[in-house]
Structure formats: structure tokens, C-alpha cells
Amino acid sequence: MMQLRSLWARVRGVWRADEIGKEIDEEMAFHIEMRTEENIKAGMSAEQARRDALARFGHRRRIKEEGYEVRGGRWMETLWQDIRYGARMLRKHPGFSLMAALTLALGIGANTAIFSIVNGVLLRPLPYPEPERLERVFQQNSSMNRFGISVADFQALEKEYPKIGSVAAFTQRAVTLTGGERPEQIQATFATAEFFKTLGVMPASGRTFLPGEDRTGGNRVAVISHGFWQRRLAADPKTIGQQLTLDGISYTVVGIMPQGFVSPEGAAPDLWPILQLETPKRRGPFTLRIVTRRNAGVSEQQGREELQRIAREVFQQWASSFPDRNATYVSMPLKQALVGDIGTTLLVLFGAVGCVLLLASVNVANLLLARATTRQQEIAIRAALGASRLRLVRQLLTESLLLAILGGVVGLLLAVWGVDLLLALSPGNIPRLDQVKVDGWVMGFAALGTIFSCLVFGLVPALYSVNPDLGEPLKGGGRGSAEVPGRRRLRDLLVVTEFALALPLLVGAGLMINSFLRLQQVKPGFDPNHLLTVRVPLPVQKYPEAEQAVSFHKELLQRIQTMPGVQSAGISSNLPLDNIMDTNNFNLEIRPTPPGKSEDVAEFMSVSPEYFRTLGIPLLKGRYLSEQDKEESPPVMVISQAMAQRYFPNEDPIGMRLKTGGCTECPWTTIVGVVGDVKDRGLSDENAPAMYAPFVQEPYNIRMMSLVVRTDGEPTSMVAAVRREVNGINPDLALANVKTVEQLVSESLGQSRYRGVLLGIFAIVALILAAVGIYGVIAYAVNQRTHEIGIRIALGAQKRDILKLVVWQGMILSMIGVAVGVGASLALTRFLSSLLYGVSSTDPLTFGGVVLLLIGVALLACSIPARRATKVDPMVALRAE
To answer: Is 514 within 8 Å of 839 (Cβ atoms)?
Structure first.
């Protein structure tokens, strides 16, 4: 507290110096007069009495009869002088100040904008109490494949895991909300009773689920989000207790969650209905998502050991339907499971903009060094008048700090705009984008960036600018006077650093763009043009039997196929490129799975016969599915080329038989055709084995089928007509996920495009900064050597000689920087390997192209001042000296 009071007194002393000085003068004068009178009364002469009084008070308080000085306030006063003088110098050179401030603003703004994304997605803690104890649990087989949890697995976890924590299951899907003007598709997360307790979040109003409500016969209840409460229910305070009809089932609203609450997978659904589970008769399907919270004091290792113990018991109980003895449960922190691979992308971008900030700082440092040469006489005169080296360095550093603050303020404004731009460009599959904002942490980062840039571009030039040798500057040397060798070497080093920093950015951008272009050329395995996709969810309440849902889709296909403007239509349980594919295990008749081993797994889809022709998937062998493949017909299947090559490498798969889903009692399914591979999970993924079954024989996921329509014209123009046909069968149904297949293709390229565009922007900025840096150094060198160049021309040097002299000086620095940058790039680009497709992280063509580009830009930047040097008039140059 005393230190704060002292600091406040010093600051106050600077602002009220005149007033305080007057008060001290009066106070000290009073004490001096009083002491003088006392001395005279004691027998001293008037002169001795005055001298004694001044000695007592003047020595202790540094009081002179002519004035005063406040002890301890001197440094504050000189700092204020430095700030005012620095501001005057910046105003005196507006062009320099503007260029330096904008350069810094660009670097600080880009860094702050990217940091806001990194902070929101990676650094900001999850919005739950003690999120470090939350984990996602998956099942992992002996092939190291991870997938969901079955009801049987969850009920075992629910029984045993509470010894060390709590566990909940949830699943996300769209539901149809009825009761309004028209049916509406909304997003719902169905969850078990312990869901909210496990996450540790209480409702803003009402309650969450009660034990037992997640069992068959329990209360049908739902908790709604704050946004849904405001948007759909007009923030009605009497919402608790109201009924909502979801997929034809009535749910009672029992609670409203606080604003900003999201599910463990980062989604913000409209509501959370209770997930009611029946006691399973078999193990599977594996569709549940599991979240756990360890009790305080339970380590991650203890949690893993408990999961493995439970897994052994469950797998032993269900060994007949899941014989894999090496399968187990695995867990990972909830944030890691949520963020996934996007963390690598964001860290790469953050490193890239860090290089941009460093480049900007180095560029400004070069500008300050060049400007310092023109101030040599000023600095020398101030030093000759008594200013210490520390005092001069502080003055120059204060000017740099003012520049940094100006650049930081402008950079923060650019960051606010940049965050909006980054969010607009970002693909929709980046999690936690709702957490991205320019808050106190982001502003603090901007402040750190400002301080960092000030230290980088301000301190070293300030130290080199204060030349201890005052003789040469005071002689009045002009432009042609020799420059301090250390300062020249520092400028050259800064130029080399700029090129060394720019090259890894350019190489990274080149690799990303090359990867994106190669990804665009990948054949998806179908024709995406003129295709419309629509999901038609069917409520289980109105379609309780699979046969009813099959009849609905048959009628819908008949209606759609007869619509004007429709070439063909089909349905499928999954869509290509949506990255959410279902899989199924299978057992081949000719090569049965050995006991104790897990069965092989392939992608599995239920489709209509016209699905292949609608998408344009080619038939390679055998036949497509047909209308003759009815419910009562022998089960048949079409497989992909990848599955045929992997499991029937030297055999004809047509006529081969297999069983799926671990069902030993089921009849054998016969393979009747082989079709081309489809990039179901993404363009960058390898072709995976796939199985296609008639939806009438395998009505898998029959209530969540997707309709695919090939149109003559613009696909979106058919949406209204498709909606009419759907409502013509059932007016309570709503369409979901209405997209064109071209949109699916574009979305699958989203992250690759995002990385390429942003790295490309940063690389262009780096290239410009490097070009400006080399141009500034060469232009300054030409200015300094005007006298020398004039003499060379007077002695007969040709223009090409002068051109070669100047350009060669810049190109040497550029090539040294490029050489250093190549080495740095080879070390750094290996971190990009996981983000690249079809191109090596050391691709020689990319490296060679970037090196040639950077050298070409350097040559162009050097040639401009070089051409100016060839036009120097010898007489004018010599007279000027």
C-alpha cells in the first residue's frame, strides 16, 4: 500500500509540478526565515545565520534559493519529457510513422485474430465444473478400430463405474416437432438420467432427469435449451410442465438449461429428451456415446484400469456375439475427443502468424536503423550536452513503445474484423466456434504482442543507434559519411532473417495449396452434379414397425420418380462424404473367422435399387440390386471394388456368401454384384470396403433414410415439390439436411481449403514484408553511397556496372536468407505431414518453386533502387557532398 501511495505521489508530482513546487517554495522559505531569525537571536551575524539555515534545509531537501527539485520525481518528469518528445518526432515524420504502425498492426492483428480462435477452441476450458475429470469412453477392438457403445455395454458401465465416478449415455439426432403451423426439424440430444449430473451443470429453471426415468415405462420428460425457450416458446415463464410432441411422442418440459450450455460433443441442441433404454437381448448395435466423470482423487490410470476390468466382464458375458478377446474400453479427455485433429490445424496457423509478427517487427527494426543514421548528429549533440547512454537509449525506446502502442491499437481493431472474417471462412465442422470472442484474454495477448514487438524492433536498434564515438557525427558528416560497421551488419542480418522467416511460410502455403488442388482432382466415385439430398425422419410412434417405414419409402420413391424434372431417385441409410458411416461385421463362408478373433468390418448401407444409377456409381461385375429383390426373396448384396480386391483377390466374388452382424442363425447373403468405390468418409480417405443391401431386406436405420434425387435443372428448385410429396403421404413430417451433393463435396474440402487460404494469405503478407525489407535496405544503401556512385560514374562506370553493383549487394543477402530458410523449412514442414494429401512435406517442386519466387521478388525489389542509382548525376552528387 505504501508503494502504491508513493507511486501515486510521484505521478501526481509530474502533473502538478508547478503547483507543488510553489507550495514547497513557500514552506521551505518559511522554515529558512524562522531558522535565520533563531540564529540571529543566538548571536550569529545575518550572513552566517542565513548560510546555516540554507545548509540545514537546502542540503536535506536540495532547496536552492533560486528554485527546487522534488526528490524521487525526477525520473517521472524525464519520462514525460521522453513521451512528449517521441510524439513530436512521430508527428514530424508522418510517412515513416504510418508505415511502421501499419506494418506492426498487420502482424499484431493477424496474431490476435488467430489467437482468439485458438483460445476459443483449444485453450478455453470446457463449460463444465472441473472439466479435467470428464472423459469420453469408446470401444476398441483388436484391430484398434474405435466405435460406440452398445446398450449392454452401457448398462454394465452404469452398474460398475459409479465405484469411481459417474457415467451417462447420449445420442444426437434430428426430431420432428409438431404442434405449430408446420412440422419443424430440430436437433435433440437424447440422454440418460445421470447426464447432467455427470457434466456437473444445473438447470437455470426447473429440474433435470430423475433416477429411473431412463428406463422403459419411465416419465417422458425433456430439458430444453435457453435458445429454444426464447425462440420457440417466446420465453414463457410458465414453460415448465408444458407438453412437446417429438416424432409423435409427447414429452413434458421439466427444466431449462442456462444460456451457453452445450453437449459434450460441442453441439448446441434445442433440447435434451430422456433416453429410455430396454434390457437388451443381444449385444449391439454400438451407437451410444458415453461420457464419464471421475471422482476427486481418482487418477486417469485408475479410471483406465476400472474400464478394462468392466470390459473383461462384459466381453466374457457376451462372448458368443462378440468373440474378440483383445477388445476393451478406451478413454480420452473430453476436450481431446471434442477437438480432434483440428488442433493441429490451428497450431500450424498460429505458428504461421507468429512468423508474420516477427517479420513485421524485423521490418520496423530495419526502418528504425535506417532512420537512426539521419539522427546521428542529434544524438551526438545530446550526448555532448550531458545525456547519458542510458538516457538516450530510453528516449529511443520510448519512441519505439509509442509506435508499438499505436500499432497495437490499430491491430486490435483489425483483429475484431479479422475474427469475423475467420469465422465466415471457417468450415462448419470446427468445434466450439461459439466460444470464439475478443475478450480480456485476447486483449491481454494483443498487449503482450505489442510489448514483444517493441522489444524486438526497438531495443536492438536503440542500442546500436547510440554511438559512443561522438567525433565523427559532430564533424557534420553528410550522407556520404561512413556508417557504423556494426549497424550495417545488423541491418544485413535483419534482412537475412526476413527471408529466412518468409520462406517456411511460403513453403507451407505452397504445400497446403498443392494438397488442396490434388484433393479437388480426386474422383468421388459418383457424379455430384444435379443431385439433391433430403433426409426424411419417420417418428417411431407413427411407424412402430419396420414394414410400415418400408412402405412409406416405397410410396415416396414412386411419387418422386414421376415428378417433372426428375431423372431418377433413390434412398440410402447413409450419404457419401458426410463422414458419418455405419459399419457392420461380417463372416465369409469360404474363410470363416477363427474362434476368439474379431470379425472383419466394412461400411454397411441399406439402399434402394435405383440408388446406384441415381448417383452414377458404375457396375463393374454382376448386376445391380433390382425390384425383384423383395422381402421374401433370398438375401442378396452388392459390394464395392475395394472389398472385392481385399477379400477375393484371386476369386470371382459373384455368388460368394457371407453373414453380417454376428448372426449365426441368419441365412447366408449372396453377393450379386461389384460396384465402383465411393469416397464415403471423405476425399482424402482410402477406399474402404463397403456392402450395399436392399432396404426391403435389411431395413437398417429405416426411419432415418436419405432421399437422393437427380434433376434436370437446379436441384434446389425441387425442394418445395419434394416437400409436397412427403406431406402428401404424411402432413406431420418435416425435411431435414436439405443439401445438394455438390455442397457435400465442398464441405468435405472445407478444412483443406481453410488451411490453404489462410496460409496463402499469411505467405503473401510475408512475401510483401520481405520485399519491402530488402528494398528499404538497398534504397538506403544507394542513398548512403551516392557520393561513391557519382565518383564511379565520373570515372567511366557504365550503367550495367552500377546496376550489377547494387543488385548484387541485395541478392547476396537474399540468397543467404533463402539458404537458411530452406533448412528451417525442412525441419518445420514435417509437422504438416498429417494435413497433406498426395504431396510430401519435402516436395522438391514446391521447395524449388518457392525459392525461385522469393529470389525473383528479391531481384525485383533490388532492381528499383538499382535503376535509380544508375541515374545519379556525378556533378550533383559531388556538389551535394
So the answer is: yes
The position carrying cell 414463457 is 236
SS3 530: coil
User: Which tens digit of pLDDT belongs to each residue from 402-449?
Assistant: 888 888 888 888 888 888 888 887 776 677 777 788 888 888 888 888
125: alpha, beta or left? (left if phi > 0; alpha if psi -120 to 50)? beta
530, 711 Cβ separation under 8 angstroms: yes
Confidence class for position 66, pLDDT limits 50, 70, 90: very low
Compute the half-sphere exposure of residue 866: CA atoms within 13 Å on the CB side of its CA.
Answer: 21
Question: Measuring CA to CA, how many Å separate 671 from each of 621, 645, 668?
Answer: 11, 14, 10
| Beta-carbon contacts of residue 288 (< 8 Å; ≥ 6 apart) | 148, 149, 150, 151, 153, 154, 169, 170, 171
Q: Which parts of 63-119 fold into alpha helices (H)?
A: 74-92, 94-118
Task: State CA 508 to chain mean position distance.
Answer: 16
Q: Is the separation of the CB atoms in 881 and 479 below 8 Å?
A: yes
The distance in angstroms from the start CA to the end CA of the chain is: 61
Length of the chain: 881
Q: Within 10 Å of residue 770's Cβ, how many Cβ atoms?
A: 31
d(CA 770, CA 497): 9
- Give pLDDT tens digits for 767-782: 887 887 777 777 777 7
- The alpha carbons of the chain give a radius of gyration, in whole angstroms, of 38
Convert 638-668 to b/e letters by CB count within 10 Å (16 or more is b): bbbbbbbeebbeeeebbebbbbbbbeeeeee
- CA separation, residue 466 to residues 67, 378, 446 (Å): 33, 10, 30
Type of residue found at 708:
V
- Euclidean distance between CA atoms 568 and 551, whole angstroms: 19
Rounded to whole angstroms, the Cα distance separating 199 from 757 reads 37
Q: What is the pLDDT of residues 166-196, one digit of tens each?
A: 999 998 888 888 877 778 888 899 999 999 9
Percent of the chain with pLDDT over 70: 84
Q: Give Cα 248 distance to the centre of its chain.
A: 40
Q: What pairs with residue 250 in β-bridges?
A: 245
Task: Of 810, 791, 813, give the one whose Cα is nearest residue 865.
Answer: 810
Q: Report yes or no: 683 and 522 within 8 Å, Cβ to Cβ.
A: yes
pLDDT tens column, 239-296: 899 999 888 788 999 999 998 888 887 777 889 999 988 877 666 667 788 899 999 8
Alpha helices in 521-640 (DSSP H): 546-561, 611-615
At which residue does the C-alpha cell 475395394 appear? 642
User: Quick one: pLDDT at residue 552?
Assistant: 93
Cell triple for 285: 448395435
Reported as type and span, the H/E element at residue 351 is helix 342-373
